[in-house]
């Protein structure tokens, strides 16, 4: 099956107490990052900035 990358919105500070979890194969990390940023912008009111992308990228976890 290979490695997967997982983004767990519940690990980010949020007033909405969001528990959305998204996953993608490891070779689609950028796609998951884009989807995670889009979620943060649309549902949490963030702006798409290099800082936000960096924060989200750091929280993405690789699992086997």
From TrEMBL:
InterPro entries: DUF1059. It comes from the Bacteria. This is DUF1059 domain-containing protein. It comes from Candidatus Roizmanbacteria bacterium RIFCSPLOWO2_01_FULL_40_42.
């Amino acid at each position: 099956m290979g490695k997967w990358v997982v983004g767990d919105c519940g690990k980010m500070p949020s007033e909405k107490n969001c528990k959305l979890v998204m996953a993608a194969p490891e070779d689609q990390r950028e796609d998951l990052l884009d989807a995670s940023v889009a979620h943060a912008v649309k549902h949490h009111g963030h702006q798409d900035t290099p800082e936000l992308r960096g924060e989200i990228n750091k929280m993405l976890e690789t699992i086997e």
